[in-house]
Every structure is written in C-alpha cells, then in structure tokens.
C-alpha cells in the first residue's frame, strides 16, 4: 500500500489527493496547518485551512483563494477524506487528517498540548501514521505552568515600573505576542505594541480572543507612560532605533529557547522567559502516544534524537527533510518603517 504523504521538492505531497500540506514552493492546491510564514507562504493557487485561521491568514497573505473548514468537518477530494483538527499551536492551527483506502494519516504541523486561552486546545487524533514536529524534542525542554510564568513576567514588569523603566518583552508577532498579552496583568501599566503586532492583535480580537487595550508608541501622549509600560515587539525591534524611544529600558525574550542557559546572554537580553507555542519533550511523547500510531515521521527540530528515541521504544520512526523552522517565522511579518509605530 502506497504512502498517503510523501516528500517532494515543493513540500509534503498527497499523491492520491494531488495536493500539498504546508508547501514551501508555490503549488496549485495547498492545505495549510497554520499561518506562520514557514508553513503558509505566498504564491499558491488555492488554500484550504481551518475556519479560525481566516483572519490571521488574510492579514499575512492578503487576498488569496481561501477555502475554510470547521474543525472536524470532512471533505472528499479525489477519494481522500480530509478533516482538520485543533493543534493548540496558535489561532487557527490545525492537524490534517487524511483517510484513503483504509489508511489514516495525520500531519500535525506545529502543536502544543499545554492549555492556551488564545487558541483551541490540542486534540489527539487516532491514526496509523503520525507526522510530528520535534522543535523541542530533547529531554531538557520541560515547560512550567503558565500561572508561574506569567506571575514571573508580571513581577518583572511591576518592578521595572517602580524604577521608571520600560519593560521590553521580545517575542514573535503572531501567536506568542497574543499569548503574552492575554496572560499579563494590564493593571500594572500601559501596554505598547510594535506595528508588526497590531494587525495580528486585530485578527485575534475579531476571532473573539480576549486581549487588553494596547497602543502604538506614536499614540502615547504622556511620555511618563513610556517609562513604565510593557512593550511587546518582535526580536528585530530590540536591535533597531525604534527601541530608543523607551529610554533606559529592561529587555527580555520570551521563547522556549530560553530554557538553555546562555541563549539569553548571547542575545544580549536582561531576562529570559521560557514560553513556547510548541510542545515540550513530555508533551511531544504524550501526543505521539495518544495517536496510537505505529509509524511516526518527524519533520523538523531535534529529529534525529526523536527518531532514535521512538525506535528504541518499538515504533517505526523516520524523518522527512523539510524547510520548516522558527528562523523564518518573523521574516515577512515586519512592517515597512513608516508602519512600525
């Protein structure tokens, strides 16, 4: 029996369905797991995605030919039954379930199993073959509960505010920024967002996600507010002249990579907060086990370590070579200079 998903130069391809999943080259038909730029790219003829992703996809890709599916809704295409299921990664993220001639495959894209009020929770989907990420696929990566993390972030912000210092928290504009905004305590002070964050906030708000009031720096009339605010911006902004408007600010980076000592120092940040939109090591293993799959394909991250671990535990495991990864997520989310706010 032939594989339902194979590797091609354009991306992951479903031969019987004649479509691609998160292709990295332009193709006629693309199924998109989520709107991060390494998974949703310009140039495809037709896009299929989960309904909650509409706002963020259109914010990122503009006027595209977009077909939307509710989570769990099934469609048939060339004999392949396709449905989308929550991945818990960011707003509208989905796992792609394919069924054809008795086989069930699930391509998960990126996913997170920890609770997150800004997107639908991860839903395990039973399958024969599971295609998984492994961004943090090493035993050192284990996340603490959000309550502890945000208590730490709020304490850092409040302490800085009492010393008349802005708290600049760098994180990805899409997904991470909204999760930060949803979790912090807005009573501590005003919140300023970078121009790359604002349109994505608007898409989240339109989807019914609760976010606090925010301002662009150009909308701040009282300069004293710039000395006690929380600033949410992409990492690139921390190295730009835009940051000078906040004076002697304290900087921090929110990322799962902050789990490793030395990453904060190499980035030149004052603080590092371990916050990820990906599953940690236990989360990855739990998610894989919950599918019941006997064959697992790893797409990106610590794939060699994950494949070896799964093989040692009796599963048929291998890796696909893909072009997914965090290094390109922010590349096309930066606004032109006049929009940076």
TrEMBL record:
Its EC number is 3.1.-.-. It comes from the Bacteria. GO terms for molecular function: exonuclease activity; ligase activity; RNA endonuclease activity. InterPro entries: MBL, RibonucZ/Hydroxyglut_hydro, Xnuc_lig_assoc. Keywords: Exonuclease, Hydrolase, Ligase, Nuclease. It is an enzyme of class 3 (hydrolase). This is Ligase-associated DNA damage response exonuclease. It comes from Ramlibacter montanisoli.
């Amino acid at each position: 029996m032939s594989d339902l998903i194979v590797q091609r130069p354009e991306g992951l391809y479903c031969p019987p369905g004649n479509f691609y999943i998160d292709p990295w080259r332009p193709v006629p038909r693309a199924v998109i797991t989520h709107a991060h730029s390494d998974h949703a790219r310009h140039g495809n003829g037709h896009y299929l995605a989960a309904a909650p992703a509409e706002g963020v996809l259109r914010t990122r890709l503009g006027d595209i030919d977009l077909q939307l599916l509710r989570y769990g809704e099934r469609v048939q295409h060339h004999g392949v039954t396709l449905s989308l299921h929550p991945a818990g990664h960011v707003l509208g993220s989905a796992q792609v379930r394919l069924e054809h001639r008795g086989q069930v495959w699930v391509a998960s894209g990126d996913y997170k199993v920890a609770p997150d009020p800004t997107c639908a929770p991860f839903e395990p989907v039973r399958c024969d073959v599971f295609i998984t990420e492994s961004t943090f696929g090493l035993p050192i990566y284990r996340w603490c509960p959000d309550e502890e993390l945000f208590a730490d972030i709020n304490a850092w912000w409040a302490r800085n505010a009492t010393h008349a210092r802005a708290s600049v928290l760098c994180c990805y504009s899409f997904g991470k920024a909204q999760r930060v905004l949803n979790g912090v305590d807005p009573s501590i002070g005003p919140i300023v967002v970078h121009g790359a964050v604002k349109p994505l906030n608007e898409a989240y708000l339109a989807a019914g996600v609760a976010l606090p009031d925010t301002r662009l720096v150009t909308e701040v009339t009282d300069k004293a507010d710039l000395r006690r605010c929380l600033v949410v911006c992409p990492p690139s902004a921390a190295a730009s002249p835009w940051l000078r408007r906040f004076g002697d600010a304290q900087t921090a980076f929110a990322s799962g990579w902050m789990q490793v000592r030395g990453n904060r120092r190499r980035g030149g940040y004052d603080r590092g907060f371990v916050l990820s939109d990906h599953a940690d090591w236990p989360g990855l293993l739990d998610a894989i086990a919950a599918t019941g799959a006997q064959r697992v394909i790893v797409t990106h991250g610590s794939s060699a370590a994950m494949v070896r671990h799964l093989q040692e535990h009796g599963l048929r495991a291998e890796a696909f070579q893909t072009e997914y990864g965090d290094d390109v997520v922010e590349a096309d989310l930066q606004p032109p200079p006049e929009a940076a706010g």
